[in-house]
Design brief:
By secondary structure, the chain is α/β, with parallel strands linked by helices. It is built from eight helices and 16 strands. About 30% of the residues lie in helices and about 25% in strands. Helix 3 packs across helix 5. The longest helix is centred in the first third of the chain and has 25 residues.
Length: about 350
């Protein structure tokens, strides 16, 4: 028997299990597919919302708390696993001129640096980027991580710490006795525990619906391209009209992302490939010679205003949730895991938990 069962082995589940295991608890993660192969793997790893000034305070509160945690977390994972998540302060370059004034005001209120860049006097790290307008906004504090490496490091770290991981075994039901969760039933086994936390991303609402719990979490498909290019083409993450370009250390460039309301359909489309490739070549013309190395899709856990549900589900004792992070699951991950574990263990919460409280 485990003290805690975590349902879902994406970034939210792995980080939650890590936090629980750090207290000495026995922890089991149960995953319906492979560890870290859904939205956590599919995203870009930008440690910031794309346009942070457009998000509610509840999102930016978790973002700011997580941004303080990410550097030390990545270093701890690198030391424990030998895998470098490649956490880098590349900066975020916003090319939408209409966003400059809002961005500057938001940065001033948030206490972070914002620089207005003149297209004719840009730094060398931006020389390969085509500016659509005369100015752009740089947020130099924004970092990135390389999702697949992060997830590999995190998996190895939690397994080394003693967390048990069960893969390819979908949870079919929660075990409930006298109004309290006692574990989970899967396609092949029964797992007992004193408490269960659901971190199943886009599948969270489907799992909970059978127990009368209604959460406004839905799948939202995003498609990405990976281009093979030379290192050093450009430095900052490039953001324009809702899409972005991310240069990795080895020269590969991520192009993202679409926003598609297609239910649980997770296939790629020719239309998205054409759209994203044209976007990349428009903003960084040298990418016209960069071949497509990979094209994939993932399902984000969409939620109202992007505010996740974190905390106890009042309908059943011992049942918790940490899901619904929409487009910002990576950047909000560490603080979200800390908060849900604070609430599970009745510790002083990292941030005010009220904005994330699931409905009764």
């Amino acid at each position: 028997m485990s003290d805690f069962i975590v349902v879902g082995a994406g970034l939210a589940g792995l980080l939650t299990a890590r936090e629980l295991r750090a207290t000495g608890a026995a922890v089991t993660i149960v995953e319906h597919g492979a560890v870290g192969r859904q939205a956590s793997w599919a995203g870009g790893g930008i440690l910031s919302p794309l346009y942070p000034w457009t998000y509610p305070d509840a999102v930016n509160t978790l973002v700011a708390a997580s941004q303080r945690l990410w550097p030390d977390l990545c270093e701890a994972l690198r030391v424990a696993s030998g895998i470098d998540p490649e956490c880098e302060a590349s900066g975020l370059l916003v090319l939408d001129e209409v966003a400059i004034e809002c961005g500057v005001q938001w940065a001033s209120a948030a206490g972070v640096t914002a620089q207005v860049i003149d297209a004719t006097m840009r730094p060398s790290a931006m020389s390969g980027i085509r500016f659509p307008h005369a100015r752009a906004l740089l947020l130099p504090h924004v970092k990135q991580v390389r999702n697949p490496r992060l997830l590999a490091a995190l998996r190895q770290s939690v397994v080394q710490s003693g967390v048990r991981i069960v893969e390819h075994d979908p949870v079919t039901a929660l075990r409930v006795e006298r109004g309290r969760v006692q574990g989970v039933t899967t396609a092949s086994a029964t797992y007992n525990s004193a408490a269960v936390v659901i971190t199943a991303g886009a599948w969270t609402a489907e799992l909970l619906r059978q127990h009368g719990v209604s959460l406004a979490i839905r799948p939202v498909r995003g498609q990405m391209l990976l281009l093979r290019a030379a290192p050093g083409l450009f430095g900052p993450i490039v953001l324009y009209e809702g899409h972005y370009l991310i240069a990795r250390r080895d020269g590969r460039v991520l192009v993202g992302s679409t926003m598609e309301e297609v239910g649980f359909e997770c296939r790629t489309t020719d239309a998205a490939r054409v759209e994203l490739l044209a976007y990349a070549r428009r903003l960084v013309p040298v990418l016209a010679d960069a071949p497509i190395e990979q094209h994939w899709a993932g399902l984000r856990p969409g939620s109202p205003s992007g505010i996740p549900y974190i905390g106890a589900l009042p309908c059943l004792a011992g049942l918790y949730v940490n899901a619904g992070h929409f487009r910002n699951g990576v950047v909000m991950g560490p603080a979200s895991a800390r908060l849900v574990v604070d609430l599970m263990l009745a510790r002083s919460p990292l941030v005010d938990p009220r904005p994330y409280q699931p409905p009764s």
